[in-house]
Amino acid sequence: MGARIVGLCRPTSPEKWGPYGKGNKYIYHALPCSPCPKQYLGEVTRCQKNDCMLAIEVDEVYELAQEVLQEEGWPVLVENRVKED
Q: Which residue intervals of 27-71 are DSSP H helices?
């Protein structure tokens, strides 16, 4: 397909679980509780804190998505407007 991926990695290791493929990128914060050992054992965790997702800021996602789009030749967006070079 050739679609690029911006992954938001939770308690699992992105090296083990991806996203795989050329040009795919991810955001992952190595917290003291990650990678979650239960995930490696194939167990579903019922973590109530979700610190791994709460650590990911909206601006991080936006900036990484912009980076991926720019690498693909799309114009850079600034404040919901197309940035003129």
A: 37-40, 51-54, 58-71
